[in-house]
């Protein structure tokens, strides 16, 4: 990914842009107080706490910003039955034929809580703010919280099925059931096929071309270096 970013960035047009890879708990390629802002999108649940706070405090200038953003569980905003079913399939940790047992923990639980367990160290940071948006199933933007960070998208049932096959839990399930193939590959149907069978039956979706809108719970943490 880093190599792709480097290859795709014109150094003449963007002479101040560089790409580095390393642990957030060390950041060896940054000098002390050399950074204005540290941004993390859907990654801070993997950091080692509290060690990462010492690392970020070292590289940030006084007044520098930390911003951690995440998105959690999906909601079919016009379809309460579909939302109930996907929540059950994605969070059930006792049924090996569903997805909940295949998330890496504790990272997934931190995501599902929209980063509430992550507490910036008071020793280093001030002006700590939290923003959340939690969707509902009464229609688009019917949830509670900061609509400015609402994450939403409309797609067909077929497209959503493929999107959910990008989940790490699906990859874990697939590794545990290598003999089970999706219908699109000539198989009898994998966990996503079966989950969407249940959803389509509950919602009365007659084919995979039905368009539905999803929103995700989102969370944002902001903090400023003392």
Automatic annotation (TrEMBL):
Put simply, this protein is called Trans-aconitate 3-methyltransferase
Please give the InterPro entries that the UniProt record associates with this protein.
Diverse_substrate_MTase, Methyltransf_11, SAM-dependent_MTases_sf
Query: What's the source species' lineage?
Result: Eukaryota, Fungi, Dikarya, Ascomycota, Pezizomycotina
Entries under Gene3D superfamilies matching the protein: Vaccinia Virus protein VP39 (3.40.50.150)
Alphabetic keyword roster: Methyltransferase, Transferase
Say which species the protein is native to: Diplodia seriata
Q: Which residues cross the membrane?
A: none
Q: PANTHER family recorded for this chain? A: METHYLTRANSF_11 DOMAIN-CONTAINING PROTEIN, METHYLTRANSFERASE TYPE 11 DOMAIN-CONTAINING PROTEIN
GO BP, one annotated term? methylation
Please list the residue ranges annotated as the Methyltransferase type domain: 1-68
* Keyword Transferase part of the UniProt annotation: yes
Tell me, what is one Gene Ontology molecular-function annotation carried by this entry? S-adenosylmethionine-dependent methyltransferase activity
User: Of which family is this protein a member?
Assistant: Belongs to the methyltransferase superfamily.
């Amino acid at each position: 990914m880093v190599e792709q970013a480097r290859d795709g960035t014109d150094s003449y047009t963007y002479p101040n842009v560089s790409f580095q890879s390393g642990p957030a708990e060390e950041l060896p390629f940054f000098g002390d107080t050399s950074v204005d802002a540290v941004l993390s999108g859907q990654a801070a649940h993997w950091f080692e706490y509290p060690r990462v706070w010492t690392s970020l405090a070292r590289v940030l200038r006084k007044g520098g910003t930390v911003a951690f953003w995440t998105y959690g569980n999906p909601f079919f905003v016009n379809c309460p039955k579909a939302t109930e079913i996907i929540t059950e399939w994605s969070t059930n940790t006792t049924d090996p034929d569903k997805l909940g047992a295949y998330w890496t923990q504790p990272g997934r639980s931190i995501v599902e809580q929209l980063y509430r367990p992550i507490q910036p160290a008071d020793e280093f940071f001030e002006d700590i703010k939290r923003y959340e948006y939690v969707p509902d199933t009464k229609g688009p933007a019917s949830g509670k919280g900061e609509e400015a960070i609402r994450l939403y998208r409309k797609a067909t049932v077929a497209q959503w099925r493929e999107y959910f096959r990008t989940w790490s839990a699906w990859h874990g399930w697939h590794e545990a059931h290598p003999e089970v193939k999706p219908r699109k590959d000539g198989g009898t149907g994998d966990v996503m096929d079966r989950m969407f069978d249940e959803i389509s039956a509950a919602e009365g979706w007659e084919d995979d071309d039905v368009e539905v809108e999803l929103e995700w719970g989102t969370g944002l943490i902001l903090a400023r270096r003392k």
